[in-house]
Every structure is written in C-alpha cells, then in structure tokens.
Amino acid sequence: MKGLISFVVGLLFAIGLGLSGMTQTHVVKGFLDVFGDWNLNLMGVMVGAIAVHSIVYHLIKKKESPLFDSKFHLPTKKDLDLRLISGAAIFGLGWGWAGICPGPGIVSLVSGDLNIVVFILAMSVSMYAFKFFEEKFLK
Amino acid sequence: MTAALIGGAIIGVAVSLMLVFNGRVTGISGIVSGVLSPRKNDISWRILFLLGLLSGGLLLRFIQPEAFQSSSQNMGLIDYAFAGLLVGFGTLLGNGCTSGHGVCGISRLSVRSIMATIVFITFGVLSVFIFKTLRGGV
Question: Is the pTM here over 0.80, yes or no?
C-alpha cells in the first residue's frame, strides 16, 4: 500500500507542477528575474501548496504514527549550519541557471528534450559523487 | 496566478497524502538520492514515487501540452550540464530542494527549511541576474 500511495503522490505532484508552470523553464526564470521582467505568478504554487499542507500537518502532528507505517520519518535537525546555507546557495545558483529543480526536471524527462536529459544525468552523477565527498570530508 | 494556486494546492494534497499515509516528507532530491545510493528495504516506495512523477508527466502531455514548452535561446547543453551538477550537489549538501524545504519544511515551520528557502531563492535570483548580464537575456 505504501508503494501505491507513493505512486499516486508522484502522479499528483507532477500534475500540480505542470498546471502551475513549474515545468516551464522560462516561467521559473521569470519568477527569479526580480531585477528584470519579474513574473510573480509562481508565488501561487508555494502559497497553494503550503496553505493545504500546513493545515494537514497541524491536524495530524499529534498522531502517534502515519496510517501505513509504524512511525513518522521527519527531519530532526534544528541547527542552522554552514552546510545547510552553502548547500542551499549552490542549489539556488543551479536552479536559476537552468530554471529547473529536481521535481520538474524528472517530470519533464517525458518530453524527450535532450537539455532536460543532460540536466538530470548531471544531477544524478553529482548526487552519486556527493555521497563519496560526504563520506570523505563531512563525517 | 489562479493556475499556479491550483497547481500548488494539488501539490499540497500530494505531499499531505505522503505524510498522512507513509509518514514521509516528499523531498524529491532526497528521494532520488535514496535510489542512487539505496539502503535496504528503502527503495521501492522511492522508485514508485518517481514512476508516479513520470506517469504524471505523460498525462500532462495530453491535458496540458504547453507544460513542456520552454523558451531558452541562450542556453546550451553545457549550461544544463553545469546547472545539473550544481543542483545535485547543492540539494544533498543542503538536505533538500524546493519540495522538501520549500513546501514540506515551511509547512512544518522548520527554521532550517525557512532559512534554506530564503537562501536558494536569493541565489536563484542572483543566478538569473548574472546570467542575464553575461548573456544578454534569459
């Protein structure tokens, strides 16, 4: 059942991304183009998603466990460290450069666009390499 | 902005289902990383999620074909390659991307996620500014 839920979540997530404009790189770049031709529309995605999810989270946060698992798997870290800040900064640079973040990138693979394929391949290689970097330098 | 709000609300429903049923954060960079470097008994839900994303993409090709029309005249393959490298490394170093920090974390009022989101949007803005300055267009 967990697998079925994951599949449905992925499906809905992709449709939400597509309807909102997140899969169109010029729309994403327009949202980040604050000093130029700023297109604030994408603010609606975060507002809509956070509005729904924060209510649901508030309603269920006192529950002992989710319906299909014995416990919640939520992040427990609280500290604002250099790793978090520098990681977010590096991600932001890449996101602005291509106008693609991981979710919309994977969804857009179905377009067969070579640019997207190259982006996701590079992202995957980088993620794979990161694990070795983390093991060697961050532990 | 209506389309963005509706799309966002659908994403909100999706990540809520993941939390209520499976007890997990829908952080896409983390889910992908867990497939690339798998741990025992922790991979099938990730793969099914990714298959869901791709199936949703196929569905979009029929219900919203313009979702895959992007204009980016000033970008070459090498740009996408370098941007992908930055996104992969940055999201794992910073423990999350737009979905995990920007949607799930902010909804839980996680200070780390709020900070990460401010930082990646700021650097996203900076990146677009630099790119436009160097190349003369988005």
Answer: yes
